[in-house]
Each structure stands twice: as C-alpha cells, then as structure tokens.
C-alpha cells in the first residue's frame, strides 16, 4: 500500500486507510506493507500488527493537515525507491495506491519495472476539474493522471458521482465503487438529550473554498437579523481560515460562529454528541467521513447535492440543497428552527443508515477484492 498521508498527517484518506488497516489485523492471510510519510526527520518502521507493517519516510511536513507540492515530490521520490527496494525482499502480489498522485505514480513505476498489478483508490481532487484551486496544476498533470488510470488493473471510486466523473474522462476504464465506512461502536448517539433554545450546528471540514463554509456564515448572519439564532462550530484548519474569521467578525457573529481548529478524532465523538445538526455546504465532495460519523452519532444532516452526500442523505434523515444556494439553506434552517421536534426522528434515521456502513463490512468487501486479483 502507498499513501502520502497517514494519521496524524493528512485528512480523510489517511483516516480511511487507518480504519481499514485496523480491520485487516483480522485477516492473517494478508501481509501488508504501507509506505507513507513521517513528520519527523528519521525513517520509522512500525509494526501495526503481526501482518501489517507501516514504513514512514520523513518529508519534513510543515502542516500536518495539508502537504505542500514540495512535500508531495519528496514523498514520491522516497516512496519510489522504497517500493522498489522492498519489492526485491517481499515479492508483493499487488500494489494498492490510496490516491492517483502521488501514490498512484509509485504503483505505476512498479508496474513498469516489476510488472506488478495495481489498484488506485481515486480521491476526489485526483479527478481533473474536481477542485477549482487546482485548475492550474490539473493542466500540468492531467496527462499523467490519465496514464496512471489507463495502466491500472482497477480504479476505485467512493461514490456514484466520482464514478461518473471518471467515466466521462475515459469510459473504457475498469472502475468499481467502494464506500467509506464508520466505526458505529465508537461513534454513537449520547444517552441523554438536552433541550436548548439555540440549535448547535457542527461543520467539521478543511477550511477551504470548496467546502463552502462562507455560505453558512452568511446564512447565519441573515437569520440573526431576523431574530433567529444558531451557533456554529467550524472544526478544522485550512487556507481560508483567516478569511472566514474576518468575514464572521465583519458580520458581527462573534457569539454565533466558533472556529475550534483541529480536534483529535477521539475527541470528535463528544463534539458530534454536543451538536444538534451536521452541515456540510460543499461545492464538490466525495464521500465525507465526517458526514458518516455525524450520522452514526444520530445527527440530522444538511448537505449539498454533490458527490456521495446524495447516497447518504434524503428527506428521511436530513435536507439536501443546491450547492451555493444561500436562500435554500436559509429556508431549511428557518423551518428547522420553527419545528425542532422533527430533528429527533431525523437523527434516529441517520443512525439507522450509518449502521449499514460499518468498517467491518467495508473491509470484507476489500478483502474479497484483493483475493480475486
């Protein structure tokens, strides 16, 4: 396995990788080496379990949540040499890349030099056009992305939208869909519910334009002018953090909007349990780990009609609106404020849906895939 991020480095991709490795401890038939990044200055080899080894190469990360282009290049070079070195010892049967770039490029090299089959799990930002802030980079690396896809034995998408986007680029590619999962034993509703006049919204996501947090800030400001108050917790870091803070201050929302910053995953359970509503106003999305965690904790969801959100949320457990439509979001929040009792049933339905996405089931699906390669 190849992945430039692994907790505490990175975001959702690293989290999914970690959760699946925990499940693969139970599959002694698989021997897995993961080549990933290390924040420090020395190479580290960690025995994750009897059958899983994590090999970490230092790339001098400046930010644990986001890798710079230079850090990605460093990982590519170190992981390429490492993969070839460890292949000579282990004679791997399969290479699994957790992204097209940079991990998929290393798998591609193993195919070229060692004839090793490989699978690529495509991240949303891997898909040209998925994220506007990468438009310039897409122009440079799109040919490489398409080549890595073409030479792969299988591409994995996380949701139907990503599947369709990849097919639009090349409809001859072999693609399958494997959803993300959630630890339903860990992420669960709190035992007692406290009734409050002010509804609390949680929005855990990187603070970047694609996630649309500014839309939620502006909507809360409009509602406040009408005497309707919500409290919002933004959990995460990102390039737009300072701009979002300035926007909140400009709109006089110091009592309504709270920027919590990074919260360790083990503490996120309490954050979900202390909230009433999950909101993710993204302009584009894969399958949000945070959405699954919130649903597992029994939260109703307010999401946009993008990516895998439509496969997790319907009118039985939340609300879907057009990305960028502030009036639609305002109407949803206004109606919720008028009828808070509906949230309880929506939350119960969220929990029921989440139970279908346990990591155990997802790991079984991956195991069957690996056996058949």
Structure in a nutshell:
By secondary structure, this protein is an alpha/beta fold. It is built from twelve helices and 13 strands.
What's the layout of helices and strands?
Layout: H1 12-24, E1 32-38, E2 44-49, E3 52-58, H2 69-90, E4 95-97, H3 100-114, E5 118-121, H4 135-151, E6 154-157, H5 160-169, E7 175-177, E8 199-204, H6 213-225, E9 230-235, H7 241-250, E10 257-261, H8 265-273, E11 277-280, H9 289-296, E12 301-304, E13 318-321, H10 326-338, H11 342-354, H12 359-371
Parallel strand pairs: 1-3, 4-5, 5-6, 6-7, 8-9, 8-11, 9-10, 11-12, 12-13
Antiparallel strand pairs: 2-3
Helix pairs in contact: 1-12, 2-3, 3-4, 6-10, 9-11
Question: Can you characterise this structure?
Answer:
- By secondary structure, the chain is of the alpha/beta class.
- The protein has two domains: 12-181 and 358-371, Glycogen Phosphorylase B (Rossmann fold, 3-Layer(aba) Sandwich), CATH 3.40.50.2000; 199-357, 3-Layer(aba) Sandwich (Rossmann fold).
- Helix content is 42%, strand content 17%.
- The chain has twelve helices and 13 strands.
- It has helices at residues 12-24, 69-90, 100-114, 135-151, 160-169, 213-225, 241-250, 265-273, 289-296, 326-338, 342-354, 359-371, and strands spanning 32-38, 44-49, 52-58, 95-97, 118-121, 154-157, 175-177, 199-204, 230-235, 257-261, 277-280, 301-304, 318-321.
- The strands form three sheets. A six-stranded parallel β-sheet has the order 10-9-8-11-12-13, with helices on both faces. The protein has a four-stranded parallel β-sheet with strand order 4-5-6-7, with helices on one face. The protein has a three-stranded mixed β-sheet with strand order 1-3-2, sandwiched between helices.
- Strand 9 (230-235), helix 7 (241-250) and strand 10 form a beta-alpha-beta unit.
- Helix 3 packs parallel to helix 4 and helix 9 (289-296) crosses helix 11.
- The longest helix has 22 residues, at 69-90.
- The model has no long low-confidence stretch (mean pLDDT 94).
């Amino acid at each position: 396995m190849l992945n430039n991020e692994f907790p505490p480095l990175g975001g959702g991709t690293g989290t999914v990788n970690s959760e699946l490795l925990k499940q693969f401890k139970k599959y002694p038939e698989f021997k897995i080496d993961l080549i990933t990044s290390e924040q420090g200055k020395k190479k580290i080899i960690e025995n994750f379990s009897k059958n899983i080894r994590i090999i970490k190469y230092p790339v001098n990360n400046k930010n644990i949540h986001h890798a710079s282009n230079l850090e990605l290049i460093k990982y590519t070079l170190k992981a390429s040499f490492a993969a070839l070195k460890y292949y000579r010892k282990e004679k791997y049967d399969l290479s699994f890349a957790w992204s097209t770039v940079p991990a998929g490029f290393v798998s591609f090299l193993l195919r070229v030099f060692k004839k090793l089959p490989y699978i690529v799990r495509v991240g949303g930002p891997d898909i040209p056009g998925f994220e506007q802030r990468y438009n310039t980079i897409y122009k440079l690396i799109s040919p490489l992305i398409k080549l890595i896809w073409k030479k792969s034995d299988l591409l994995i998408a996380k949701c139907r939208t990503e599947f369709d986007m990849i097919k639009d680029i090349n409809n001859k590619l072999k693609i399958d869909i494997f959803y993300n999962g959630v630890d339903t034993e860990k992420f669960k509703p709190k035992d007692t519910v406290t009734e409050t006049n002010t509804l609390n919204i949680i929005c855990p996501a990187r603070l970047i334009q694609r996630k649309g947090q500014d839309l939620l800030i502006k909507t809360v400001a409009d509602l406040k002018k009408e005497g309707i108050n919500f409290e919002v917790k933004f959990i995460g870091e990102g390039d737009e953090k300072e701009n979002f803070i300035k926007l909140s201050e400009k709109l006089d929302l110091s009592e309504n909007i709270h920027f919590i910053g990074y919260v360790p995953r083990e503490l996120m359970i309490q954050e979900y349990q202390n909230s009433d509503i999950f909101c993710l106003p993204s302009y584009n999305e894969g399958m949000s780990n945070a959405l699954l965690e919130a649903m597992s904790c029994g939260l109703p969801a307010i999401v946009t009609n993008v990516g895998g959100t439509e496969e997790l949320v319907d009118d039985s457990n939340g609300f879907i609106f057009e990305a960028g439509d502030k009036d639609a979001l305002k109407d949803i929040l206004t109606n919720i404020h008028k009828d808070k009792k509906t949230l309880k049933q929506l939350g119960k339905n969220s929990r029921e849906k989440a139970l279908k996405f346990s990591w155990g089931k997802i790991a079984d699906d991956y195991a069957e895939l690996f056996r058949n390669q």
